């Protein structure tokens, strides 16, 4: 999506220098011919196929691997709590 200009190493160094305590994963393509297989599958398996439009698009995956939902970047994560609870109960 062309959002982050740095290399993976540059991004990791920046985050480390800023005290980021989490684990960072490498940048990947989520759309197009070089799309990560995980995101290709998530888009295909969701009931809402199509390109990922922006950062923070969310997918809810059940314990059995079924995609239970796909939510746009403006969807507040708190608003999908009922869907998450339902998926966990199954």
UniProtKB/TrEMBL annotation:
- Keyword annotations of the record: Oxidoreductase, Peroxidase
Any single biological process term in GO: response to oxidative stress
Query: What GO molecular function annotations does the UniProt record carry, in alphabetical order?
Result: peroxidase activity
Q: What protein family is recorded? A: Belongs to the glutathione peroxidase family.
Q: Name one Pfam family in it.
A: GSHPx
* Organism encoding this protein: Tetraselmis sp. GSL018
Protein name (database record): Glutathione peroxidase
The UniProt record lists the keyword Oxidoreductase: yes
Q: Which InterPro entries match?
A: Glutathione_peroxidase, Thioredoxin-like_sf
């Amino acid at each position: 999506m062309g959002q982050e200009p740095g290399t993976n190493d540059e991004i990791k160094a920046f985050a480390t220098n800023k005290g980021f305590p989490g684990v960072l994963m490498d940048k990947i393509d989520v759309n197009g011919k070089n799309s990560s297989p995980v995101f290709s599958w998530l888009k295909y398996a969701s009931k809402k196929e199509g390109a990922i439009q922006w950062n923070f698009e969310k997918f809810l995956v059940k314990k059995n691997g079924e995609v239970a939902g796909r939510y746009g970047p403006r969807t507040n994560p708190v608003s999908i709590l009922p869907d998450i609870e339902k998926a966990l109960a199954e």
